[in-house]
Amino acid sequence: MRERGEALRRRARSLEYRVRGLASLRQLVGLSPERDITARQWSVLEVQLNAALAQLTSRIKMATDRLLPDAADPRARRRLNGALGRIELDMSRAFTFFDTYMDVLTQRKSRALGAVLSGCDVLAYHAMRRRHPALLTIEPPLVFCDRGFGAAIVRESVTFPDGSPNPMPLIQIPYSRLREKYNLTSVLHEAGHQALTRLRLVARLPDAMRAALDKAGAPAPVRDLYALWAFEIGPDFWGFCLSGVAEAASVRDLFALQPAHALRIGVTDPHPPPYLRALLTFDWCRRAWGRGPWDLWEREWNTLYPLQLAPPETRKLLMHARRFVPVVGDTLFNHRFRELDNRVILDLFDLSAVSPATVGRVVATARSGVLDLRGLNPCAQLAVFSELRARQTMSEERLDRIMTEWLSRLGTTRTSLN
Fold first, then answer.
1. Is there a domain that residue 50 lies in?
2. Inter-axis angle of helices 74-106 and 39-67, to 10 degrees?
3. Domain that includes residue 195, residue range
4. Contacts of 316 (CB under 8 A, 6+ apart)
5. What digits encode the pLDDT tens for the residues 325-339?
6. Which among 118, 130, 217 is positioned nearest to 171, based on CA atoms?
7. Nearest-CA neighbor of 276 among 238, 314, 313?
8. Digit-coded pLDDT (tens) for 235-261
9. Is residue 368 part of a domain?
10. CA triplet 41, 385, 257: central angle to 5 degrees?
């Protein structure tokens, strides 16, 4: 009987040893100072890991203190065995949080990748932080790479399998995006998801769109679809407010897919069809700055994606939805939200900083051989790079090298995010 009790004691000690691994993330990752995350980011991570460690360790101690003295009793052994088994499962869930950040942070060990990702962190932070109480206390985000086509975000406070909240925004971008850094507006889009959630506008945007479309006489199916699509249209608009025409150029690049995909409507998919997603951004450019290259983009877009290629029912919905694109644009530009103290979304931004005239003047400085980005925030700087690419003043390879250096320099300012 004593041997059976000793086996359970050894199992408990082994479990406690493994649980202590939750406190080893920083040591295991071993990031050098120049590629490390900020002290504030480590603080929020370690508080959560240490809390899980303390809770699991306490449960092990309580179970062994209560049941080991009676290990000669089969019932006590069964209860202790069950308690340790439950802790094993809970520990594995706690390590899901650990593993997630281990995967994210080990990417920083690569000198080249780590420097670029640090710059993306700063870009994302500037994209989220606005002059609004809900956004002034936002935790600095971490950007990491993964496989796949599109970007994604794990917002702060989203729960992991163990029930613990994610302590900071995690933005995932495809590895391929690092070969087209001018399209890092996808980071701005994902930042928009986090910001709009903080502002409590995720539920309000669909209501505002539905009301405006109803007033404009839109059919019920179109009202319902735009209310569903607001979840993604809102972050697209956030990216537009931050980078101007660069957002439209990126949407045009990223969603130039085969017609079967570009003209598809999923009745439960919050993503608008790529066809409409581009038309929305062209409308925003026209609304902000009048006539411009986006008019040509729109004509070419409609040539590439004639609605006759869509199935009859989808074609009918797309025709109606296209007709009400200006109503959606007017709502985004002019609707006043109670959550913003009766202001419009644009009041959180300086759209003039990314106007074609402003961006064009900065791009013109590149003719001297030195691009002057002084006075521009990182999102506006991204808009400049997008315009450089649009004007084809340099090769893709040279632009990539310049943007890599830009992101690396930007990453050195990440300590200011504390």
1. yes
2. 170
3. 113-352
4. none
5. 999 999 999 999 999
6. 118
7. 314
8. 999 999 999 999 999 999 999 999 999
9. no
10. 90
